Amino acid sequence: MAETVYLLCAITSTAAAGLLSIKYRQRRIPLLLWTTICFTAFALNNILLYVDLVMVPQVNLVTLRTSVMLMGFLALLYGMIWERV
User: Fold this and answer.
1) Which of 19, 39, 40, 64 has its CA 20 to 30 A from that of 30?
2) Which pLDDT belongs to residue 85?
3) Using one digit for the tens of pLDDT, what is the confidence trace for 13-66?
4) Could you give the 3-state DSSP secondary structure of residue 64?
5) Which helix (H) or strand (E) holds 2?
6) Would you say 32 and 76 are in contact if contact means Cβ atoms under 8 Å apart?
7) What is the DSSP string of 3-54?
């Protein structure tokens, strides 16, 4: 059951990143770019979570997953603080 949740989270965040990317290409609003980068990092984090816990449980990818998620949060934080809409 947990494997299904990991995959659904990866699919959802990938879909959100794709939709945000489409909107950014249409409107060129900088905050959409930073949100797209953030959700792309979330999608990568969810894929790494699935790989870490389901496909290759003997390999510890916690540091890599945390780094990817932190980069996504920092990108969104940068976009919200320093970019003007």
Assistant:
1) 64
2) 54
3) 999 999 999 999 999 999 999 999 999 999 999 999 999 999 998 999 999 999
4) helix
5) helix 2-27
6) no
7) HHHHHHHHHHHHHHHHHHHHHHHHH--HHHHHHHHHHHHHHHHHHHHHIIII
Q: What is the DSSP letter of 57?
A: T
- Residue 21, pLDDT score: 98
- The conformation of residue 69, written as its DSSP 8-state character, comes to H
Number of C-beta neighbours around residue 39 at 10 A: 23
Q: Are 64 and 72 in contact (CB under 8 A)?
A: no
Q: How far is CA 58 from CA 1, 18, 48, 69, 78, in A?
A: 20, 32, 14, 21, 35
Q: Mapping DSSP to helix (H, G, I), strand (E, B) and coil, where does residue 67 land?
A: helix
Residue whose structure tokens are 């003007």 = 84
